[in-house]
């Protein structure tokens, strides 16, 4: 209330404050006494409307200015879907360019068909709003419906490229690793079992908090496979605290209910290093970290499309340098990464890499893959 403005208060409240101030302050009293008899405090609704109109006018001017700049710099459209608190679907469109990224619009899709035609209609409307000649490409997820939308966009606008989301493709590569690499699936499942037990069992969580010095165990998200790396990394950081819990006198069967006893014993064996669990955690982190680092790079605010071609090659090269992975496992991991890369790669990646100065400075990267794709 200390910083309340008379401009946004109701007339009655403002008049009350003014009269109280006039009694205690001579300057306020003299000012109000000299005012015209018709003077009234500013109406709240009028002040609010003028402020909103002013903000809308400034925003509109900024948008027009950005659209003008996009005619020179070019821009990329990014479309993704999300759900609000009530689980209502909302596809949203963002515009990225050299001058920054802005949120453009969100479309309420409750009760509507979320098919390729609807998504194309949304993108087509945005391109008409900002002029299609300024749009270089469209970035979407790698789902089948998005691929179909991309083909529709390229057919309607031949000068526009449709590109799959690199971060989503890398996340799907981690999913493929989990499905196809048995040793990785085993260590992730074991890590999830440990994290779930220490999160859900009160006494186990309290005992861990006693030894962990504020180190929290993370859980994997169902549809965000990169979070499995974060989960294993949190176990690695909390290893000493977990082992202290297992060796503490309070760690006994009676601390859990009967239906939790099997999980209690399984977690005990895992933390004590059954089947060289901690060695496998280190191995999994070493492999997944390479993918997660690239995922964080492409998911950041900087323009990284021209770097993806180089970084994929560097990722495979670094993976082959890991001593903890067998030659057969390295070949399997490379096949998974190359499958996702071949599905995601577009002519726009090749063109961006071809004109990147780093491409010309790195003699270790031949242009056998980049130049033909760029020229075609």
TrEMBL record:
DUF659 domain sequence ranges: 45-192
A Pfam family per the record: DUF659
Keyword entries, A-Z: Signal
Domain of life of the organism encoding this protein: Eukaryota
InterPro entries: DUF659 (IPR007021), RNaseH-like_sf (IPR012337)
Signal sequence region: 1-22
Record flagged with keyword Metal-binding: no
Protein name, as recorded: DUF659 domain-containing protein
